[in-house]
Amino acid sequence: MDYSALLLSENAALADLVHGADHTVPVPTCPGWTIRKLAAHIARGDRWAATIIRTRATERVDPRTVPGGEQPADLDAEREWVRGGAQAILDAVAEVGGGTEVWTFTGPKPAAWWIRRRLHEQTVHRADAALALGRPFEIAPELAADGLSEWFDIVASRPESPLPDGATLHLHATDDGLGEDGEWVLRGTPSGVVWEHGHEKADAAVRGTAADLLLAALRRTVDGVEVLGDAEVWKRWLDHTDFA
């Protein structure tokens, strides 16, 4: 999967989506946000990541110190501002080398880690914007599945498990062609959640397309999925994970 190319294409799709929209429209899946704030979150977050990479940061960078964070009032200029952040990430990685270790909120990682992270930041917030504006949200099954895996990696890096000790949760994507990449088994442990690709009977199972599973697992909308088994396990996951 070409994360660099996908970052640019997803970023452009998001920039185009918000460009012609009423910027005062609230974003229900991100309480307190408007379309304008969503655009700023993406553009500033991308520049923050680029600064971390370019400076080879070994600790968290204060987002308020990142240059280029002023949101243009002109909508055409804003679209280019949103697009510029994604390119800044790729330029920074090219400058320092993808293998250079830098700070991330999950611990030190190669600089290229940020490309995949910011790619999936774009996809989820593009979904937020589409839902807020009443537009369809479309995403390739392979990209949605990778977004789920990336999200589970983030949750697994946290010391607290969103699942009770010993509880299991199975997600099954119904799209053709995903194979094992479209199945996930998550387990609660005393030191956090662990996950792997695979198919097995679990306390709860959630079925749907990869796109619908992505939206459900990240608490955007659960309308497109079917829950089998112990629904409380699934509810516990939703109640104890967050993404903004």
UniProtKB/TrEMBL annotation:
<dbReference type="InterPro" id="IPR024344">
    <property type="entry name" value="MDMPI_metal-binding"/>
</dbReference>
<dbReference type="InterPro" id="IPR034660">
    <property type="entry name" value="DinB/YfiT-like"/>
</dbReference>
<dbReference type="InterPro" id="IPR010872">
    <property type="entry name" value="MDMPI_C-term_domain"/>
</dbReference>
<protein>
    <submittedName>
        <fullName>TIGR03083 family protein</fullName>
    </submittedName>
</protein>
<feature type="domain" description="Mycothiol-dependent maleylpyruvate isomerase metal-binding">
    <location>
        <begin position="10"/>
        <end position="130"/>
    </location>
</feature>
<feature type="domain" description="MDMPI C-terminal">
    <location>
        <begin position="142"/>
        <end position="235"/>
    </location>
</feature>
<dbReference type="Pfam" id="PF07398">
    <property type="entry name" value="MDMPI_C"/>
</dbReference>
<dbReference type="GO" id="GO:0046872">
    <property type="term" value="F:metal ion binding"/>
</dbReference>
<dbReference type="InterPro" id="IPR017517">
    <property type="entry name" value="Maleyloyr_isom"/>
</dbReference>
<dbReference type="GO" id="GO:0005886">
    <property type="term" value="C:plasma membrane"/>
</dbReference>
<dbReference type="Pfam" id="PF11716">
    <property type="entry name" value="MDMPI_N"/>
</dbReference>
